[in-house]
Amino acid sequence: MDFLLEYEDLSKYLLANKYVDFGNITIQNKAKELFTNDSNEIGKVKIAFEYVRDKISHSWDIQSERVTRTASEVLKYKEGICYAKSMLLAALLRFEGIPTGFCYQKLTLGDTPDTGYCIHALNAVFISSLNTWIRIDARGNTNGKNAQFFIDKEQLAFPIRPEYAEIDYPTIFANPIKITTETLENNTNCIEMIKYKLPTAL
């Protein structure tokens, strides 16, 4: 698909903020642990993606009530929903100087439209050596999901099903969008949040 950039200035996709808080020493230490000096750009993206995908649990998968709201909290507790996991992936890569943004999909909450809809978060990274953006989804490969990082094709956790009115939003945002951060800020029980309180459209 053709992406729309919120900002043409790539530096906007490198900034730290309240949610992508890579000024936190624990994130910096994790980045130094994950990335060796000889890791190239593509290698760093793959390492960070697979770490967040595989080593950070999705809260629903482990039926955790904890709501993590920043990248550093996700790293501390090793869990988060897609909104939070995408913050950690962005933080690790931005600390390494790799532009990373946020993308969204509208998906059915369950397998079919009668379950309702929710907004799902994933990331886009700019690969300077290829001069291109690539979307990646570190939600976690459970229950048959198979998200991968490839430079020649896109393989996300949730292929869009237009017949179910699912949507791939084309914009690459520099920061997590407000409706997602407010959802995390305003809830204290993650299971209830996922069941009943996720936003349903951008």
Automatic annotation (TrEMBL):
Q: Which domain of life is it from?
A: Bacteria
* Entry-linked SUPFAM superfamilies: Cysteine proteinases
All copies of the Transglutaminase-like domain together span 30-138
Read off the Gene3D superfamilies from this record. Answer: 3.10.620.30
Q: Name one Pfam family in it.
A: Transglut_core
Task: Name the InterPro entries on file.
Answer: Papain-like_cys_pep_sf, Transglutaminase-like
Name assigned to this protein = Transglutaminase-like superfamily protein
Origin organism of this chain?
Answer: Clostridium homopropionicum DSM 5847
